Amino acid sequence: MRPAHLALAVLVAAVWGVNFTVIDLxxxxxxxxLFSALRFLAAALPAVFFVGRxxxxxxxxxxxxxxxxxxxxxxxFLGMSAGMPAxxxxxxLQVQSVFTALIAFAFLGERPSRPRVLGMGVALxxxxxxxxxxxxxxxxxxxxxxxxxxxxxxxxxxxxxxxSPPDALNFMVWVSTVPVLPLxxxxxxxxxxxxxxxxxxxxxxxxxxxxxxxxxVTTVFGFGAWxxxxxxxxASTVAPFSLLVPVFGMSSAALFLHEHIxxxxxxxxxxxxxxxxxxxxxxxxxxxxxxxxDDGATPDGTPGAPGAAAVPVGGDR
Length: 317
What we know:
It is a single chain. The chain is built from 14 helices and no strands. The protein is mainly α.
């Protein structure tokens, strides 16, 4: 990989990692479900008029839009709003690679190799350690919401694999059109029209910049750059850079939000990142060419796990 391409891969990981800190800041401006709806609205418009027609069946766009956009990101934003720290969220979400492997085994019959099973065990040990740490410092209910978000992210990865979109950016932009109305409806029902209108009336330049960052920088730029790299390099070369996402997520949260990283959290990070690496690269020789999606996707706390070949979806990027 050329130095410029390597720098771009690191930049995308940094953008996706810092996104968790930006989300945390955004939750001070907007109710969580309204914030998520605005994120997808800004990601879809005006990009949807420039990426061309959808290149997969609408059933896959709607399915991924509901599972990834409404369930995964709705739960993530709710969990962070309820007290889940930004840095820890960026780390715990990586357990989506375990959920992806389990769901692929259950519904696609993909039997994991022994290294992959070992990786799942190591990653789950990291989640358990993170839960112990959060249980002593924060609300476990918020932690559970982020774990549930990771599970829906895993399901969206499998759905995206079935869809096999040929163009990652086109797919993500069209997927972004689906969650807007459901999230707005849920926001009106649960957060209330008065709270939503108050947040919109109080919109300032900082709130607008936050929405544009999570929509245009993490989604449009992040997915576009990641897809560009994957068209020029093997997935096995590009995908490992997504392991940097929680590194940037935790460090940016510590720097800008003054989040304290405890020894238990460092231990959880080592186990989770190591387990995700084993889970994602545990089937050597399984394929000879890039696939639409392997084990993970982006974040929006869009980044994805290593192994995501052509379509990293969701992290929260």
